[in-house]
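3.2 Worked example (two chains)
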Amino acid sequence: MLFALALPALPIGCTADEKPSAPPPPAPVVRTPEPRAHLKEVRGDVKLKRATGDEWLDASAGLPLFENDKVRTSAGASARVIFPNGGLVNLGEEALIGIAETRPRPGMERTDLTVLRGQVDAALETPATQSLSVSTPSATIQAGREIVFR
């Protein structure tokens, strides 16, 4: 004796009255943060601490710097930080800086930096369209042209 069984073609987990659910939406695209600056001309013992890490790493020329990263120079060391807008900051020995979160300003390319210790020399390539904001533990200074902080 042979039996035949006919079943309607339904996706597993659905009843005859239900329609299959739509596939889940695609996962959101995770954007890689844009570097706020790059290290250049690293001389001597220069360290980098990523905002996402706890360790001080050896720094080298060409490394990208992101928001809230910190750069530290030791005695006799120096480094240059170049910003995408052409601004630059020279770190002297025994300096400690942080790449601050930049708040865009219409029509003005802006660079924000926190100087926690040491000497920093800064220059803007085109001061008419650039802004540099330097914060210290006790003050914030905004400027154009060449500036020196001690």
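3.2.1 Second chain
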Amino acid sequence: MARLHTRKKGRSASHKPALKSAGWVRQSKEEVLALVERLAKEGKTEAQIGLALRDEHGVPSVKMITGKSVSKILEEKKVAPKYPSTLIDLIRKAVSLRKHLEANHRDKQNRKKLNDVESKIKRLVRYYRGKKLPKDWKYSAEEAALLVK
């Protein structure tokens, strides 16, 4: 499948190993669930939780050990963020691009990139509307800047 905003074709990505269980992992399922909950209460995103578990605690895959993804665990423990992290990251990028364009009016390349990022945001909003976002939620640049701060 082709990339969204480039003329390049997609590249195959690396795949996780097909291990059903890692015998060298010291943590039990309950310990991993407690670690995920503690890291979420510290304010880390799903991606940061996965990185911390991998790098600091030696957990190769949360889903392999617990049978559930990090986001499902956070939803069950009622510590899931209000907005999806993918959407928040794109909104942060759009806000920083707008700030850059206020100082650099003639930067046409970044004006195009802002348009691409906002297109991705609107596409994600369509996907999440009614699931993780309210039915009447709409993207606007001013409200997004307040949301990220």
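3.3 Remarks
The domain at 85-148 is CATH 1.10.287.10 (Helix Hairpins).
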